Amino acid sequence: MPTITELNPVATRVVSWWKRPYIAAAAAIVVVVVLVLGSFWLGASSENVAPASDPAEQVVPDASLPAAEVEQPSGSLGQAEARFTAALAVVDRLYDAYDRGDVASITALLADADITGYTSIEGFAWDLAQGSEVTDRTCEAPPDSSDIGVTCTMNYQTALGRAAGAAPIELITMASISSQGDITFFNERLSASGEVDALIAYFEDWVSAEHPEDAEVVVFGRWESIEQATRGGELRAQYVNEYADYLEANGCSFAAPCVP
What CATH number did the domain enclosing 155 receive? Predict the structure, then answer.
């Protein structure tokens, strides 16, 4: 049996043409709905997402907080503190040995050091042999730009000063320490007054007159070995006592000496 299309092809074309506007309209409606729903969904989602932080608005520590609550930056400051701590520990060992009269430990600690200023390893031996003392030592870290690890100030008293009742002399020490913990630089300087210088000069003149054979070794710095320096310190302490007896016997004093 023939189909409708076969019987009336024109009718088929009319039906197809009539359906097209409705199909297009339906498709358009679907697109609009999808767009509206999509926009709504995106807007709602964006409300739940935190905005990206502006680098310029990043939170930084409040500088007004106590130091313990603010993270300290590493760098030159930390390096200076570490250098000071290490240097102080070694200098403490040095002066602990001084207090014990331990010349061997002092020699070991200063074996590789560039020693300048007042003292030397022999000078330490000379000091200890005559009974010199250092007291009231305080230490601090030098400025960051310095290669010095520690600076210490202390009171220094010799056998002569103690016998004369003179005030201690201010002694300033500076030291640098290597990363291996060795003293690489050591300097001592004295802040002696003119009165102290005169006291020493009168005593050494007396030694030259009374004990000329020992005049050289008794004077600071005139030794060629630790043993010689030790002997010089021992003789200096002995002659200080003799000098005090001489002054008293002749009606003189350390402040107003009478030298033969």
Answer: 3.10.450.50
Residue-wise pLDDT tens digits, 170-226: 999 999 988 888 999 999 999 877 788 899 999 999 999 999 999 999 998 889 899
Instruction: Give residues with Cβ within 8 angstroms of 110, minimum separation 6.
Output: 94, 121, 124, 183, 186
Q: Within a domain: residue 7?
A: no
Burial 208-217 (b: 16+ CB within 10 A, else e): eeeeeebbeb
Residue 132 lies in a domain: yes
What's the pTM value of the predicted model, to 2 decimals?
0.66
How many domains is the chain built from?
Answer: 1
Which tokens go with 222? 């005139």
Inter-CA distances, 231 with 129, 155, 221, 238, Å: 7, 24, 13, 11
In a domain, 190, yes or no: yes
